[in-house]
């Protein structure tokens, strides 16, 4: 079977959708595969990644997070005429690519479309309304629609109208993302020594509004001195977050982290804080990774998001009313003040992450999906 994957970008670009696209490619090894995506630079580029040809269309601009390319139509046409896929796996949202994809699919009714629906367009509300018709055509054309959680199906006005086509495939936590070699374990022990006597809270993510780091910084102000709050990542809100955190010695900004340092902090921390506040956080791969490493989690309750499907309130961690920093701090204290509760959450977190997100489970679900559209 020949499969064409169409994500926005692809590895080595790092992002949630890009990681899922790569996990799909790896899960489908044994089939003939190709990836068409955008390049961060102006020129077109073709390379081999994960043993698969990756065609990257050069971009001349980006508007509302959407890359624009003069060569994309031509490159997509070439995939249909020369590669001639049996199945296209399209990672939504990507309105620019969807425009051309629908045109080519119309001419090739035998080609199966799997629509991998990562999230609704919520941030750009005007654009979201503008592409309402396009979304409907995609959903109608799709043989199957992949959602990462049942919560997102129920919370999405698009997916809830096409429940009969939807298949739930939680995001994958690749073993390499949580395996800790000796040097990582040694660094984790070093961190435990540095923060000895304090409860270590760790959070990681881009510093953008929907990730909610502001609320974690505010929550820290309600915590006593026996806590250390370490925040990894960077972004447009980093400077304002640092200003907000002034005069709070509990908070440390770690900046951009390499893989070993990320794993070391996950291994060393007592509680993983995941303060995202909107449906833009459709699943929470970082949350699943922390749980896979046996960390109890604190999240906000986000209506229609898969975050509260990944971590279950009172089972793998605690939830707080969305945007309520004081309640978030209280949830942290409930876990840290009760060792037995913390241990139960930690064990349950690991078991749930393994049941939902292991490579084996993901591969089985993806291959079953592929089989269902080929019959």
Folded structure, characterized:
Helix 3 crosses helix 5, helix 9 (213-220) packs across helix 14 (325-336) and helix 15 packs parallel to helix 16. The protein has helices at residues 16-27, 72-83, 95-106, 125-130, 132-141, 150-155, 175-178, 182-194, 213-220, 238-244, 259-268, 285-292, 307-310, 325-336, 339-357, 359-374; strands at residues 2-6, 32-38, 45-49, 52-57, 61-63, 66-68, 87-92, 112-117, 144-147, 166-168, 199-204, 227-232, 251-255, 271-274, 297-300, 317-320. The protein has 2 domains: 2-172 and 358-374, Glycogen Phosphorylase B (Rossmann fold, 3-Layer(aba) Sandwich), CATH 3.40.50.2000; 175-357, Rossmann fold, CATH 3.40.50. It has 375 residues and is of the alpha/beta class. Strands 3-4-2-1-7-8-9-10 form an 8-stranded mixed sheet, sandwiched between helices. Strands 13-12-11-14-15-16 form a 6-stranded parallel sheet, sandwiched between helices. The chain has a two-stranded antiparallel ribbon with strand order 5-6. The protein starts with a strand and ends with a helix. The chain is elongated and about 65 Å long.
Structure described in brief:
The protein has helices spanning 16-27, 72-83, 95-106, 125-130, 132-141, 150-155, 175-178, 182-194, 213-220, 238-244, 259-268, 285-292, 307-310, 325-336, 339-357, 359-374; strands at 2-6, 32-38, 45-49, 52-57, 61-63, 66-68, 87-92, 112-117, 144-147, 166-168, 199-204, 227-232, 251-255, 271-274, 297-300, 317-320. The protein is α/β, with parallel strands linked by helices and 375 residues long.
């Amino acid at each position: 079977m020949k499969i064409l994957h169409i994500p926005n970008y692809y590895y080595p670009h790092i992002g949630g959708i890009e990681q899922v696209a790569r996990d799909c490619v790896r899960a489908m090894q044994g089939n003939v595969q190709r990836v068409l995506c955008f390049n961060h630079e102006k020129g077109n580029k073709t390379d081999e990644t994960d043993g698969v040809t990756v065609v990257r269309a050069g971009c001349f601009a980006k508007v509302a997070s959407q890359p624009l390319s003069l060569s994309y139509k031509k490159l997509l046409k070439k995939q249909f005429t020369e590669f001639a896929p049996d199945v296209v796996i399209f990672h939504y949202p990507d309105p620019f690519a969807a425009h051309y994809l629908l045109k080519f699919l119309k001419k090739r009714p035998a080609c199966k479309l799997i629509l991998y629906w990562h999230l609704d367009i919520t941030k750009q509300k005007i654009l979201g309304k503008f592409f309402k018709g396009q979304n409907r055509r995609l959903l109608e054309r799709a043989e199957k629609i992949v959602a990462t959680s049942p919560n997102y199906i129920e919370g999405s006005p698009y997916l809830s109208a096409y429940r009969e086509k939807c298949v739930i495939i939680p995001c994958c936590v690749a073993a390499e993302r949580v395996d800790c070699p000796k040097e990582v374990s040694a660094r984790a022990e070093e961190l435990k020594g540095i923060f000895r006597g304090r409860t270590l809270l760790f959070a990681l993510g881009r510093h953008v509004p929907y990730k909610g780091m502001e609320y974690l910084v505010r929550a820290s102000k309600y915590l006593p001195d026996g806590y250390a709050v370490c925040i990894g990542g960077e972004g447009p809100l980093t400077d304002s977050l640092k200003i907000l955190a002034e005069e709070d010695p509990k908070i440390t900004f770690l900046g951009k982290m390499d893989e070993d340092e990320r794993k070391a902090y996950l291994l060393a921390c007592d509680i993983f804080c995941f303060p995202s506040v909107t449906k833009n956080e459709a699943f929470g791969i970082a949350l699943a990774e922390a749980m896979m490493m046996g960390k109890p989690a604190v999240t906000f309750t986000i209506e229609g998001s898969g975050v509260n499907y990944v971590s279950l309130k009172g089972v793998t961690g605690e939830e707080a009313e969305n945007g309520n920093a004081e309640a978030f701090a209280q949830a942290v204290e409930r876990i840290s003040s009760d060792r037995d509760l913390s241990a139960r959450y930690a064990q349950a977190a690991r078991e749930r992450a393994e049941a939902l997100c292991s490579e084996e489970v993901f591969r089985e679900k993806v291959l079953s999906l592929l089989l269902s559209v080929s019959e």
